[in-house]
Amino acid sequence: MGEIMLGIGDIAASACGGDLLVTMALGSCVAVVARDPRSGAVGMAHIALPAAPEDGLRGALPGYYASTAIPALFRAMERTGAPANGRGLQIKLIGGATILDRMGSFNIGKRNVLGIKRLLWQYGLGAVAEDVGGELSRTVRVEVPSGLVRISSPGLPVWQV
User: Fold this and answer.
1) What is the pTM of this model?
2) Is 124 or 55 the better-scoring residue by pLDDT?
């Protein structure tokens, strides 16, 4: 039982009751939370960008890009006993805000969310819940095995998705 902290580009999965997966200060980044309803296993990826560059990963963590994070998250979930290729997983998306880009010049948060959804659709999955967009920095805490997702942001009460 413990707290598993994820930074940008990290992926973690657990089937240990009492574990808590945590990622902090999501701006344009997106936390993808996956839960196997049969076993209660939970996984999370902290994704920074929608797709890896054409010239390779440049040493980035597998969770840094949505294009590599989604398959890596599903492999991590498989190691906990979840079905292969994400089959049957419940997915929640949190983050994808517009931070420091009020003019929408880059739309990184929106591009992240769309890129992640596109990849999930390739696996026949969609999000069962999401809290994306806006201009909030979010911290996400996910309980194992319930999959309860609590979100906090400075100056606001905690909420759930």
Assistant:
1) 0.94
2) 124
